[in-house]
Amino acid sequence: MSMFNKADSSDQGAQSAPVENFRGTVRSSSAPSIISADLKVIGDLTCSGDIQIDGTIEGDVKSKTVTVGEGAQINGSISADTVNIRGSVSGETRATTVVVSKSARVEGDIIHEQLSIESGAFLDGYCRRMDNAAKKSSNPVGSDKVASIKPRTDSAPKAAAAGGAPESKPAAG
User: Fold this and answer.
1) Distance between CA atoms of residues 16 and 37, nearest Å
2) In sequence order, which residues have a C-beta less than 8 Å from that of residue 71 and are 6 or more positions away?
3) Any bridge partners for residue 39, and if so which?
4) I need a labelling partner for 109 at 20 to 30 A (CA). Which of 62, 77, 123, 158 fits?
5) Which residues pair with 75 in a beta bridge?
6) How is the chain split among helix, strand and coil, in percent rounded to 5?
């Protein structure tokens, strides 16, 4: 026996965990995937965990959590549970929680359940709240289903049951 045998057997156990992770088991405490500032990706990204983007993406991003760094640029849609935008996004953002920082530049619609926009952020698009059907049918990772968005109807006048006339009388002026 060599003096390394005991250490070798313990190292083998440590090395098998990443292999199992590679084969499909997901650890809850895994580090986020990182797209560094000097990396440009042309194509779609799908991640079952968290992703930090500091580079350029020409395609769609689907993940549990997406963080767009200050120098990052995404030309495509983002679909996630949580999205933090500090950089540039050109495309639709669809998430339960969206935070748009003051350094962000967003050109596209934001479909959300919770939305926070810091003073100084640039936003050119519509902000729409997800309805219950969209929340139930949206699965950011691994789903090709499109969630439906219903327009708000609470500002439309209500019609009476009989005759179709409005319920309230117009004010005499």
Assistant:
1) 31
2) 37, 54, 87
3) none
4) 158
5) 90
6) 15, 35, 50
Q: Tokens in use for 118? A: 């810091």
What is the amino acid identity at position 131? D
Mean pLDDT (whole number) for 106-111: 97
pLDDT of amino acid 158: 42
Residues in the chain: 173
pTM, to two decimals? 0.63
User: Which of the 8 DSSP states describes residue 91?
Assistant: S
- Residue 138: pLDDT band (50, 70, 90) is low
Kindly state the tokens that stand for 24: 């499909």
Q: What's the gap between Cα 107 and its chain centre?
A: 15
Place of tokens 């530049």: 105
Q: What is the spatial distance between Cα 163 and Cα 141, in angstroms, rounded to a whole number?
A: 49
120: which 2 tokens?
């100084």
User: Which tokens hold the place of 112?
Assistant: 């959300």
Pairwise CA distance, residues 157 & 155, whole Å? 7
